Amino acid sequence: MAATEPVITLKNFFERAREGALTAVRCGKCSALAIPPKEFCESCHQRAWEPVALSGQGTIASYTIIRVAPARHAAEAPYAVAVVQLKEGVSLLGRIVDLPLDKLQVGLPVKFRPLVVNSQTALGFGPA
Amino acid sequence: MRRVAVIGVGVTKFGKHDRTSAELFAEAARDALADAELPPSAVQALYYGNVVGGETEKQLHTGPQAASVLGIPTVPTTRFETACASSHAAFRHAVMELAAGVSEVVLVGGAERVLNVPTAEATEYFAYASDAVWEQPVGLTFPGVFALIARAHMAKHGTTEEQMAHVAVKNHRHGALNPKAQFQKEITLEQVLRSAYVADPLKLYDCCPFTDGGAAVVLASEEIARQRRRGIWVLGSAAASDSMLMHDKRDLARVPATERAAAAAYRQAGLGPEDVDVVELHDCFTIAEIVATEGLGLFEPGTGGLAAEKGWTSLGGKIPVNTSGGLKAKGHPIGATGAAQIVEVVTQLRGEAGPRQVEGARIGLTHTLGGNTATVLVSLFGRD
Is A67's CB within 8 Å of B200's CB? Predict the structure, then answer.
């Protein structure tokens, strides 16, 4: 692979996410796992990435229920947003779907599902 | 490196204004120059903070615009944008220009105008400081960012909504003593706890308001400062950054950039947290104050909530925090905030803070945070 060619672009990541697959990159030098896009490994500053499929399974590390939303999301409020720690160790931020807002708690198991609205893909997490 | 001092300060009333951000800055700068006993012609550079001017005022190139309205159009001017920490970043770079001997007098400041647009629109513009691909489409807001931090801090340390409410009550009590504050009225713990959720667990009274306002400080070389009686020395000024994305942060209950910027500023000044007499820190949300008091080393990690509950950060407490009322009560015109915090600490160190004066304050600290905790500036100040 040419040195100027990224392993996973943002576009790649979200095209795959739209199909239900989450992709991380693992450093071939120090084994650190990261969410793309990244040129250099944050830990060892090498550039030796390999794509790794993520299971999409994790637990809520923190969450909030947004009640005052930005203009473009105002019609959707209230909605929950969470940082989910995936079982592989990396985390992703996503919208919580198909879970009652009053049942949310830190540590709750959840599973990835793509959210496609107006052809834009965002990350969602629903019941495990 | 040469020593640098603050020799003049100015700040507008914070709240709603029907003037542009450039006009608001010009008012603050006029007052800062008068305070420094210098004419506008003495200014050799302007370092300026402004964040959402492109959105709320449809205005870019706000630095030269502000300089033009002030009446110093030919002075070299640069606008800084590090989200809510913009004018503190501007300040640090101005200090370096003076310390390097490039200039003798530099003006620093910032201004913001946001109350001319509806709340949902302002909320969206502020969210532009979150990631446009990963975070904005999910609907993350700034209260949401700090709610994620709050929930993590509660889960890790047992911090409570009531402890967070104590921060709001204390800062409103301080703000009631500041004639420039947006809110000059005291509130009760009940009022905070009964207010509506904005982003659980943060409620309306856990959040700072949207604010219009401007602030300015005049910085000078030691030689010029020595010719005046009220110069306050810049003892250290440091910046630190951290991962932009919430999903890349290892521990949501901490702000590592605060810890790194504080360590660097203390090292420059040869001081530690125990030496500080008065602090203005970034309380955009009540949890932000709790986490900042820990990150600055004022209290042990996990005990910031207890410190708020016990009144240790109140005027008359162990270490008074946000005597101005903080962002919570004084208001948060984002581009002006870093400079406005410096105005308060300088006023305290001069002994000119009136009813909110910290008796005998000799060393002051300012802390400003930008965006998803990705930028932090910490500066230390001292009097002779």
Answer: yes
Whole-angstrom distance, CA of residue B29 vs CA of residue B35? 10
Q: Does the beta-carbon distance from A73 to B139 stay under 8 Å? A: yes
Please report, for residues A127, B226, B239, B272, B366, the alpha-carbon distance to residue B133 in angstroms, rounded to integers and kept in the order given: 24, 51, 26, 40, 32
Interchain pair B137, A68: CB under 8 A: no
| Residue B235: CA count within 13 A, CB half-sphere | 24
Task: Find which of B134, B205, B241 to mutate to test the A interface (most A CBs within 10 Å of its CB).
Answer: B134
The model's pTM is 0.97
- Taken as a whole, chain A contains a residue count of 128
Find the length of chain B.
384
User: Looking up tokens 């943002």, which residue turns up?
Assistant: A10
CA A113 centroid distance within chain: 10
Number of H helices, E strands in chain A: 1, 8
A59, with CB counted inside 10 A (0-12, 13-18, 19+), is middle
Question: What distance in Å separates the CA atoms of residue B249 and residue B384, rounded to the nearest whole number?
Answer: 41
Strand partners, A53: A23
pLDDT in tens, A50-101: 999 999 999 999 999 999 998 889 999 999 999 999 999 999 999 999 999 9
How many beta-carbon pairs below 8 A join chains A and B? 103
DSSP 8-state assignment for residue A74 = G
The whole-number pLDDT of residue A71 equals 87
CA neighbor of A125 nearest in space, from A72, A73, A54: A54
Name the residue among B276, B300, B301 with its Cα closest to residue B367: B276
Please write down the long-range contacts of A75-81, taking CB distance under 8 Å and 24 or more positions apart.
Answer: A76/B139, A77/B139, A79/B139, A80/A104, A81/B138, A81/B139, A81/B140, A81/B144, A81/B148
Per-residue model confidence (pLDDT) at position A1: 46
